[in-house]
Automatic annotation (TrEMBL):
Protein's name according to its UniProt entry: Sporulation and spore germination protein
Domain GerMN: 202-293
Keywords annotated in UniProt: Signal
Signal sequence, start to end: 1-23
Keyword Coiled coil attached: no
Record flagged with keyword Nucleotide-binding: no
Length: 567
């Protein structure tokens, strides 16, 4: 059955029940071994030797066995269906959602022959492969009804979906990356999904791609495929490294040669991330798709494009470049020492700069010709971030709508624009960084005593003017305290809680779920990381500048403060 992508990433913990004593939650089923297999496409899949219901098992054992049988995905969850009566077995779907749990317990429900599965969950994957992670100690309750069928207890009512213990989940599911375009079609933006491993992975990925981006990217990225695009059959065969994608005629109804090339590029970038796929073949209802002329070509879109390896910083009240172990004054710019400059930023392209004054009440910009101008006045401004389209982003925490975007050319595009974000109402913005592709914003925000890390899509109009952020952000749960976050790649970030009076532990977090903690540094007040291979990570205290070597910090001979990579 075709998978669609419209579910929200927002956390909805409905019907949650508090768990107590989770470490002692019992399970009656024996843990079975998961064995790896290799299918014809070369993809590794896993089968779980789950057991069906035992003769004469009581009702609670049937419910517990059903939970454990979620590990067996073969033959459309055939083992799980054995615990059901005939009617439910014919209608129940196991692929609509997967609850990822650390522990579960089965308790009596509100009515006779009703049981509740109490789960302490860490995450959830919906039918489209979109994963939502939950904070520690989150709970979920699943109600199940049973009845006697031919003198054996069977499940007569249960919600669609399965439940998987966290360590088993990572054996059965794997993170895969779909790609969509930024508004200029110059960059491919990653969209991480989770699918069961095996021969059906390529099909799941293509169907998900055709249905569009995850909620936190909707209206911020573009697909080369129209909403009418569908596979002719729910299958993407892979033979000798070539994946064949047979699409309906509606896919190509208004497609130009350029559209077709963009489709191929989007599919190739997505599917060649699989070990089994080297190339793709595009069909239109079993007929090969050809261009009307061989002269058409497109500029290859960039994936995880590197930032420059030269940083901007402040030394003795002047702008300086930091490159490797060298600190070099920036030429061709005016004297800014009178502003007590701090938190400088440098554009990803061109020679534009921005910085805050010492009181954080003014944002100043320096254009390509070296002209200095006041870009924004406010209160409690935060470190600016400059995007590829020429916009400088900051937040004015003294304003009711704190996020602001300032165009490079105020004469043509006007003054700073407030970016209204309903889900940030009442929050203080601690950190804001725009991704290298310009399609996403990485935000650290504090409301009351709670600090959260979000990734949201940047919505722009046809001219690249930012109009807002997407309504359903992806929320990230770091294992370390946070007040700042930076892009480390197009699908990983570095977070830390900077401060000059304690040892600070930064952490690298990937969107696939991995994390790595960096070595503690006493009094870390700044950190800088750039997108791309072999980009140095810099950290600073009030008196010293360091680079990361392995997992330790190496002190530099010279010092610059507030160092930042372009962007």
């Amino acid at each position: 059955m075709r998978k669609r992508i419209f579910s929200s990433l927002a956390i909805i913990l409905s019907a949650a029940l508090a768990l107590s004593g989770c470490a002692s939650i019992p399970r009656t089923s024996t843990v079975q071994q998961i064995e790896a297999e290799t299918d014809a496409s070369g993809a590794e899949s896993y089968s779980y030797a789950a057991e069906g219901p035992a003769a004469g098992a009581d009702a609670r054992a049937i419910v517990e066995g059903f939970v454990e049988a979620g590990r067996s995905v073969s033959e459309d969850y055939a083992v799980a269906r054995e615990f059901m009566d005939a009617q439910l077995s014919n209608t129940w779907r196991g692929d609509t959602q997967t609850l990822i749990y650390d522990a579960f317990n089965v308790v009596n429900g509100a009515d006779a022959n009703q049981y509740t599965v109490q789960l302490e969950i860490t995450g959830e994957v919906d039918e489209h492969g979109v994963r939502t992670n939950y904070p520690d100690h989150s709970t979920r309750a699943v109600d199940i009804e049973v009845a006697k069928v031919d003198n054996e207890w069977r499940i007569t009512k249960a919600p669609d979906g399965t439940m998987l213990e966290a360590s088993t989940f990572t054996k059965i599911f794997a993170a895969q990356t779909l790609y969509f375009y930024d508004s200029s079609f110059a960059y491919l933006v990653p969209d991480i999904r989770w699918f069961t491993s095996g021969s059906g992975t390529t099909t799941s990925m293509v169907e998900a791609l055709l249905d569009g981006p995850a909620p936190y990217l909707q209206n911020a990225v573009i697909s080369a495929f129209s909403t009418a695009s569908e596979l002719v059959r729910s299958a993407v065969p892979v033979r000798d490294g070539e994946a064949t994608i047979d699409l309906n005629s509606n896919t190509f109804a208004e497609a130009t040669d350029r559209n077709i090339l963009l489709m191929r590029q989007q599919l190739e970038t997505t599917l060649t991330g699989l070990a089994s796929v080297d190339s793709v073949k595009l069909l239109r209802e079993e007929n090969e798709v050809n261009l009307s002329t061989e002269d058409t070509n497109i500029e290859p879109a960039k994936v995880n494009p590197s930032t420059q390896d030269t940083l901007i910083g402040i030394s003795d009240q002047y702008l300086v470049y930091v490159k490797g172990l060298s600190i070099i004054p920036v030429g061709g710019v005016p004297d800014i020492s009178g502003y007590d400059p701090r938190d400088p930023a440098m554009s990803p392209v061109g020679n534009r700069y921005a910085f805050l004054n010492g009181r954080r009440t003014q944002l100043w910009g320096i254009d390509d010709s070296g002209q200095l101008r006041l870009s924004l006045e406010g209160q409690e401004l935060i470190q600016p971030s400059m995007d590829l389209a020429g916009w400088t982003w900051t937040a004015d925490n003294g304003a009711s709508t704190p996020i602001r975007a300032v165009p490079a050319d105020t004469e043509m595009k006007g003054e700073a624009r407030p970016i209204d974000v309903a889900w940030l109402e009442g929050a203080q913005i601690d950190s804001l960084r725009i991704s290298r592709d310009g399609a996403r914003a990485l935000i650290v925000a504090t409301e009351g005593n709670s600090t959260s890390v979000y990734v949201a899509g940047v919505i722009r109009d046809a001219e690249g003017v930012p109009r807002g952020l997407t309504d359903s952000p992806m929320k990230i749960y770091p294992e370390v305290p946070v007040n700042t976050a930076l892009w480390d790649s197009d699908s990983s970030i570095i977070v830390a809680e900077l401060g000059d009076d304690e040892a600070v532990e930064a952490a690298q977090i990937t969107f696939e779920g991995g994390s790595e903690h960096l070595q503690l540094l006493l009094g870390m007040v700044g950190i800088a990381t750039g997108v791309g291979n072999r980009r140095e990570v810099y950290a600073e205290t009030n008196e010293k500048l360091y680079t990361r070597v392995g997992n330790s910090w190496h002190e530099l001979d010279d010092f610059a403060q507030d160092v930042a990579y372009p962007g």
